[in-house]
Amino acid sequence: MDLNRIATFVRVVEKESFTAAAAALGVPKSSVSRSIARLEEEIGVQLLQRTTRKLSLTDAGRDYFQRARIALDGLDEATAAVSESGVKPQGVVRVTAPGDVGVLMLADIVAEFVKKYPGIRIDLSLTSRRVNLVDEGFDMAVRAGRMADSSLIARKLGAADMGLFASPAYLKRRGRPKKLAELASHDCIFFRSSDSGTKWRLTGPDGETSVEVNAIVSVDDMMFMQRAVLAGIGIGSIPRLPLQCKKDDLVRVLPEFTIAGASLNAVWPASRHVPARVALFRDFVIASFSTMQWDER
Asked: Is pTM beyond 0.85 here?
């Protein structure tokens, strides 16, 4: 069985054209046509139906394509794994994450990683947009919330519960609330999620409860939230991370209550061979999150 003919057939189907497949393979269109004809002759089955305007798979061709693509992907992965063995990891790892996750969590992790592996470069895209990893050529992502895409493998990194924080200047001006009911008379900065409303859903000594707040600012970026709280305009919910500020700049308000944070996941395409450099970074991120120290205020 000639693997080149099988690979040519797979490329024709993927490109939906003999001409496009020939251009991608760098060979004449006539060579592609001959390769497909000889493959069909060899296995004794018609794989493609050709007309002057359209190229389509037969039922047998569709089944053969699905199985052949899996087999070729397996060969590519085996080749890549062997070629990487014993070689010092190098190259680019393309990663995407929300901006606040990148600044608050990934910045220090990336810095430590590139010190440890100087041959690997990290191309990090910070965006709130849900990136299509395969179509846009990303190796992995760090995402918050539930994973709905079954084509991705996800590893949970953790979930940072949020506390209520305010600046000393705000508390001096408005007083420090001692009960949940007192929040109604305070200015608050509300982190806007997918659901509507301005209620904080909190967990305290007596279980879960919710409280309507006076949201003078609503925002969907945690870095903005932190800066707004530091500026002294109100009380806000901030993840209990190693905060990017001096310890005395923020004061925990009603410390017996927390707000459940969204789960964070490392995700990567399920159908793609994971190069050594990507596996190294992925595992480094997972290990770093497992030892991350949360703010204990």
From this structure: no
